[in-house]
Amino acid sequence: MTYDVIIVGSGPAAMTAAIYCQRFLLKTVMVAGRLWGGQLQNTTEVENFPGMGVILGPKLLKRMRSHVEHLGVEILDMWAEKIHHLSYPFQVVLEQGKTITGKSIIIATGADTKWLGVPNEERLRGKGVSACAPCDAFFFRGKPVAVVGGGDTAMEEAQVIANVASDVILIHRRDEFRAQSAMVEKVKVKKNVRFLYNTKVVDVVGEQSLTGLLLETTSISPKQGVASFDDLVQSFGGEKKTGIQWVLPRAGVFVAIGLSPNTKFLEGFAVDERGYLKRFEERDEHGNLLYFTKTNIPGIFTAGDVHDTRYKQAITAAGFGCMAALDVQKWLGDQDNN
Ligand code: NAP
What we know:
elongated, about 25% helix, FAD/NAD(P)-binding domain, alpha/beta
């Protein structure tokens, strides 16, 4: 059996694409992965998805999945390992060698945590180094922790962990945050959170588990309220190593420095220098838009954070999912008419 469309992924982009494709009466299958749902599974309160008020990320995902299931979309909770795009219909190879075929594909595999890449990070992962405060908060009750990053995720992580940790230091490499002001304000009101600016993490320290962070503070921000590097180190209870490096004692660190797109399993697809799937808008001879979400392979489209280097919101991912489904419907129709 050949599907009309295979959707790879299971976040808001994939879910929305599935809803639209199914309603276009296309024979649709979603390859959801074994850990379905993507980043929203690790998100706490979502306050900016219209119509949802304040809702937990996993709950929003469950609602999306119920909607998709209710419409009758087949969902496979398996990883996609390969896409064969040189033959047609396309083939998607799943775990254990199972293969499914489809006339079109939407790649909506999202993006995962980006790690710091410092020497001892991998060794201490799960031993003090984490990327999910809602998942791991329990282990840090009453302990001092750090959060690294300056975006919305860092603010969200800081907010969550501040409720259980003894104190939180949010470390950012600049002294301006990328995060939305509303999210920064929510962290600022937490009495046990302090900000450390213009500082990067050089390494994580500890034998059996994390005991501290080796930091490098390159300039003292006026926001820091100290006169010198020595004062800064002292005010955070750190230990000076060199003129710019010092160790901050911490029992846990939450890495929240952005995302890395899930494209490693793709071969023969055009990606940018950071691995994001490239989108190739196609227009007719009059300049009218034909397809917005096309990849470099005709018949294979993309949606959501796997290609989105800019917006990366649940709602924009859902919007891209809708566009990809509309493009698939048109593309399949165009093939039938040719
Ligand atoms: P992001 O917006 O890309 O921010 C990443 C942050 O980490 C930036 O402040 C960046 O510093 C810093 N950073 C990047 N690489 C680093 C490195 N190697 N070392 C130290 N710091 C590094 O990522 P995000 O916060 O994960 O958010 C991703 C997207 O999801 C955003 O569009 C965000 O709006 C969205 N989001 C929304 C919500 C919500 O609305 N509830 C919640 C979470 C995320 P620079 O600023 O210097 O580049």
